[in-house]
Amino acid sequence: MNQAPSMLKPALISGVAFGIAGSIPVINWINCACCALIIGCGFLAAVLYSKDSRAAGFAFRPGNGATVGLVAGLIYGIVSGVLGGLISSALGMGDWEEVVDQIRMSGADIDPEVLDGITHFMESSGGLVMMLIGIFVALVLGAIFGTIGGLIGGSVFKVEPQAPVQQQAPPPPPPVG
User: Fold this and answer.
1) Exposed (0-12), middle (13-18) or buried (19+): which is 80, by Cβ within 10 Å?
2) pLDDT along the chain (177 residues), means of 10
3) Whole-structure pTM over 0.85, yes or no?
């Protein structure tokens, strides 16, 4: 009996490709449009898995699309979170001091001791905490919107297994006689 195709390959291809795109500054702004990159990640994973299912003769339904979209979204979250953090620290983006200065200049009613405490914590922990927060947020969003994209892909590219062809028994030989 044939074995169902693995979801790992389509999820890895889609998650890594979209994760890299989601970590590149300016390109990652596409996610401002309803997390379009993450939904596209789940959708592509569903498309790839539906092709594998069709070739293997297995059913591919929206639930399968949601599952492979979830896995692809989690891979997206890891890749984009790690690469995004590395790119941000390499390019000097996301400096916490700038954020605190902008909060102070905006006139927001925040206790200065709180801002000093946050600044001290961020300076002592470095960018690692920000990267971990970014990875966590990317994982949560990747899981949610990757599943949605996979569900959409599963609905669009649904594959029903081919029913086995039943052969009719040959007619009995005519009576001799």
Assistant:
1) buried
2) 85 96 89 91 97 91 96 96 85 66 74 79 73 89 97 92 69 79
3) no
